[in-house]
Amino acid sequence: MKQSHIRNFAIIAHIDHGKSTLADQIMALTQTVSVREQHAQLLDDMTVEQAHGVTVKARTVRNYYQADDGQEYEYNLIDTPGHVDFNYEVAKSLAATEGAILLVDATQGVQAQTIANYRIAKQRQLTLIPVLNKVDLPSADIDAALAQLNDLDSAFTPEQVLQISAKTGQGVPAVLEAIKQRLPAPKGNLHQPLKALVFDSLYDPYQGVIAYVRLIDGQLKSQQALRLMQGQQDFNGKTIGVFAPQMHPQESLSAGDVGYVATGIKDPRKVRVGDTLTSVATPTQRPLAGYQPAKSMAFAGLYPKNNDYPALKEAVQKLNLNDPSFTYVEERSEALGVGFRCGFLGTFHLQIIRERLHDEYGVDVLTTAPNVTYHVTLTNGQQVIVNNPVQFPAFSLIKEVTEPFMKAEITMPADNLNAVLKLAEQHKGTLIDLANSGDLIVASLKIPLSEIAYHFFSELKSVSHGFASLSTAFMANEVSDLVKVEVDINYAPVDALTFIVHREDAPNMTQQLVANLKTTVPRQLYPTPVQARVEGKVIARVDVPPLRKNAAVNGEQHSTSKKAALLRRQSANKRRASKNTIKLPQSVFNAILSL
Ligand code: GDP
Ligand code: MG
To answer: 10 Å Cβ neighbour count for 255?
Structure first.
């Protein structure tokens, strides 16, 4: 296909605004997918994606479009994920395109992720086609949404905005024509040495790493000697091809095309997203500017529920190949045995991984409370990076601790402002800026990641009755007053329950924690004391009642000697507990999560 007849684009939108539905419509209209093959939401083929209705891993599909001018065009559609945890995947996908459809649900209007995605696209100097979706719904407020779009970008005039229903197909043919007319064709040089961007990858047990590539210059042929420039890795390309939407082998790919190369490389770390692919025979002189790899933001321990460590190990290895933004290192907990300390983009990502472990590998895990990364400076000047609270140094050795702070942008209707600012203050947020975007207010805050990693999002939804949305980006590590909380059950420390908290929150949180543990720690034959310690002092304590009635209380039913024997046994139990033998259920860890 001539470059002038190629269009590479993505669809960007706030979650649930209809990206997948529109992608399906486009594939149906271009007959990429026959009616027989068509089932709901073709691009979302992972079970978790269907359960959550979100797109996790970016996909790409080649379509052929018969335009009104009678000519055929190649439309490469790159699907992007829609959740705040996955901004990284959005940036990766957009790097391979010249333009994007900015899709807005007409019943909801411009939302935080609309704005966040818009900004990423603008940074990449992409051409945007604004589209209002769901105009078939009676609750659609088209005028309001048009005004918001115009506020977002003065180029989005009502005449420029297309109005569609991705569900019924109304207006979608106009979108296909606009892609041809408004988006630029790729501009690479076919006669230059091969230069291609690796923008995603997938691991296949038989073919090794499959690299998703966008050709900038030159040509790519199957069975060619190829080079990854950053990874300094040469290999012989196996098959090459396009996704339509299944893998379709081709003889060659040319400048402007999007497709895949089966590399045969078995180590996925050698094929880095952002790397430049070129040919060994005539390599390009200048590699492309790559992008930053995703950074794990939240960490948690994953332990096998039924002691099946080998199954968990195999599953996390495979998941990491498929999703390199999920990381793992082996760790050992006294309470839980051998497991993994895993890194996630955020807590939603953690939830997705848990479900994928269950759905795709049949592995159920115990998850410890997630934490962020702390940088600790010791009094002797040494620096320690802590991803596991257990490794947080003793307080007497610490000079200073820093934690990650985020810039959080909350977009909301004006009447939610007070409630939202109050919530932000409770979470140690400080206001940086307030701006208007039409009827919406955008509050920019500086807030510790540890404060927004867990429940902040759902609390925000709740105080704003569902109207506020959140977008976050890393700002800097800054000093905070943090302490380590250790939990003893039956006088023995339980390492897996250790967590880090802001000092001022420690008294309240530990009181609530021990109250929660009172009902979740499995009852024993003897009363089980549970206590929380900070800097060597017990600051909260509770006794988990015994399974049986206490001999000392119900003594009159027993003979005096029997009662004495029971009491002896109970206090012996107490003394013996240097190591914990109580098996802890997930509910115990949830007791921390629910604080
Ligand atoms: P995504 O999260 O952006 O991929 O959104 P989906 O494509 O999964 O759509 C979210 C929900 O909105 C689904 O229940 C769709 O059926 C529905 N939906 C999408 N487009 C339309 C539309 O044009 N009209 C109506 N009525 N519903 C739509
Ligand atoms: Mg989707």
So the answer is: 23
- Can you say which residues are annotated as belonging to the binding site? 16-21, 133-136
Between 185 and 269, residue with greater pLDDT: 185
Q: How far is the CA of 339 from the centre of ligand 1 (A)?
A: 39
Secondary structure of 142-184 in HEC code, one letter for each residue: HHHHHHHHHHHCCCCCCCCCEECCCCCCCCHHHHHHHHHHHCC
Please, how many CA atoms are within 13 Å of residue 583, restricted to the half-sphere of its CB? 5
Can you tell me the distance from the alpha carbon of 358 to that of 76, in angstroms, rounded to the nearest whole number?
33
What angle do helix axes 506-520 and 586-593 make, rounded to 10 degrees?
A: 150
Q: Which residue has the tokens 């490469």?
A: 76
Query: SS3 of 498, please?
Result: coil
Alpha carbon nearest to ligand 1 atom 11, residue: 16
The mean of the pLDDT values for the chain is 86
Is residue 69's pLDDT more than 60?
yes
- Are the C-beta atoms of 494 and 584 separated by less than 8 Å? yes
Atom of ligand 1 nearest to the CA of 103: 3
In terms of phi and psi (left: phi > 0; alpha: psi -120 to 50; beta: otherwise), the region of 428 is left
Q: Contact, 268 vs 201, CB < 8 A?
A: yes
User: Could you give the ipTM of this predicted complex?
Assistant: 0.99
Give me the phi and psi of 10, to 5 degrees please. -125, 170
pLDDT for 557 equals 59
For residue 201, how far is its CA from the centre of ligand 2 (angstroms)? 20
Determine how β-strand 127-133 pairs with β-strand 99-105.
Answer: parallel
Instruction: For the chain, state the CA radius of gyration.
Output: 28
What is the distance between the alpha carbons of residues 300 and 368, in angstroms, rounded to a whole number? 6
What is the b/e burial string over 228-244, where b = at least 16 CB atoms within 10 angstroms of the residue's CB?
bbebebebebebbbbbb
At residue 303, the pLDDT reads 94
